[in-house]
């Protein structure tokens, strides 16, 4: 077992009472090394340096701000939260653009990964956490973290997430209990290895772990099970360019599902990931488009159908009123401090549904909840 250096401090711990049911793997997000919980409570319980040195920065009972939505990301996991998750930050390196979380040239050293395996195995044994509860930050909310294990492209010394999970499970990842060498992989598409969220020797286990919009493939790439992706549109939009790809995941590393040209229409549901908008396109299916090519329509709701349950006040200056529940949606105008509006109780992705008189007319729109003071 790699040595764990105690740098524990209670100074920046925001809350206590961690239930310790899950382990989340992160990357630092910058090229560098750090071993402390930041002011405000942001950080992880453990940090692992390039040479494999492990630092414990917080007690296991600490609840740190590490896997929440922060009013921006979309919750993906049904149970894992800050209040029940132990966080491990891996210090990465990058040969590309370190300001881009989706850059394909992020990587972990072998020493960092091996130390992480040892630490995770120890935590699993000490805290009674199963391997199925060891997750990427990306598995909990739609944040591209840890980049090397979300890209899954084995750049330099990085493993894939499947290989990491195989190591903490005591398996090489290529064997099978039935002697066939069969592994069932869960992906958006067989060719899109970067979308893989798991690999199992047992088909029933793979089916149980399969998420909406994913497919279980056998070792030869044959689809053996699919789970339909549910869709609830929050609006519509048109394509703002020609030859624009709709991809199977939020990033250029994901497979193209098809292309759109300027003016072609599609639906949106607000479940975006960074600069990538979640879309549903007739004849193509559900995927992602870069926000630069998404032109949102005006809200379809009419003022005459509005049913208010209360009123509220804007608490900020120059606050955007948007056509949908997210920063990627078109701004319809801005409100200032003290401007008033009605609310109908709908909330999504940290945004509140409002009716406001803006630019000479009543509009049904959305505003960030952090600037809303209810009466």
TrEMBL record:
Signal peptide: none annotated. GO terms for biological process: peptidoglycan catabolic process. InterPro entries: Amidase/PGRP_sf, Amidase_domain, Cell_Wall_Dynamics_Protein, SH3-like_bac-type. It comes from the Bacteria. It holds the Pfam family Amidase_2. GO terms for molecular function: N-acetylmuramoyl-L-alanine amidase activity. This is Amidase.
